[in-house]
UniProtKB/TrEMBL annotation:
SUPFAM superfamilies: Ribonuclease H-like. This is Transposable element Hobo transposase. It comes from the Eukaryota. Keywords: Metal-binding, Nucleus, Zinc, Zinc-finger. It holds the Pfam family Dimer_Tnp_hAT. It comes from Labeo rohita (Indian major carp). It is found in: Nucleus. Residues 262-335 form the HAT C-terminal dimerisation domain. Its main location: nucleus.
Amino acid sequence: MEIKPIIETYGCAITTDIWTEDYHKTSFISSTIHYTNDDFAFVLRVLFAAPFENGVSKTGENIRNLLFQKLRAFGIDTSLLVGHVVFVTDRGANVVAALHGYTRLNCKLCILNVILSCAFAPDLESENSSPSASLALPWSVRHLEHCQAASLEPVLSEVASVCASCLEEVMGTSDTSANPLHMIYRIATFLTPKMRCCAQKQEMTWSKVKFDQVLATAQDEPPPAKKQSCSDRFTDWEDGVSCISAPKVINAEIAEYLGSRLEDKPDPENVLQWWKFNKERFPVLSKCVRFILRIPASSAPSERAFSVCGRILEDRRTSLGPQSVSNILFLHSNMK
């Protein structure tokens, strides 16, 4: 299975949402997994739309139990989720309670739903194979600019000022913000070659976000053990590449990345393929790409899965059982 080793090494993002169908009032929880594979391709897979049993309330504990039970059915060890998985949700209070203690990007709380509801940012929720994390911050800044301009209009002043204030508070779009969400999206923008200069204060960006897992995976595989000779007994006294600290390696890669020219091939618009082509040149940063750009900008993929469920369970097929609906959705989403 491709999913499990990738989660263990590079982590993944999971979008989740809850929906209640109109005919039997059965509630479902969906799960869509997002990751970048070894070929630097962005992969989106709908895992399930699991039904709640009749009479089971949608409390935080019950949501968590059902979600984790279904993830385990796919061979995903839920003990790996802390630090390896980012959950992208709406701001449903029970979902928030269910995922307490896990990295969770609450899209509505981050005003991203406001952005997505406007004509400004349709590409944040489009169904394609391109990562959207790098666009969240630029669109937030653009939307903030529109709000600030609208605040000068007497009719729109009050609403625009509130929107601008909320966006500033939650997204932390200023360079001095310590908001971790802002930092994640800033790094995603920085790792997009054509937008890299938007993050000129990269030292601040990288120092405020922990990349322990990235650095651990970025180290070369240890060489096979060999018989120790006399000269090997004092290798700790010798100068060598191993003496170079990880921060120095990262800083050197960042400097080279910022100073490098964007080649026509591969097309810098194709972000992941650009990094695949340059992974030998930037070994640490290319691994960071697989961590950061796996995170979608919204929970739209799970909401889209429920749109498919609505077409599956329609007037002529109201007798379909909840598990059949989930199975059809899985086949529809993964056999394209």
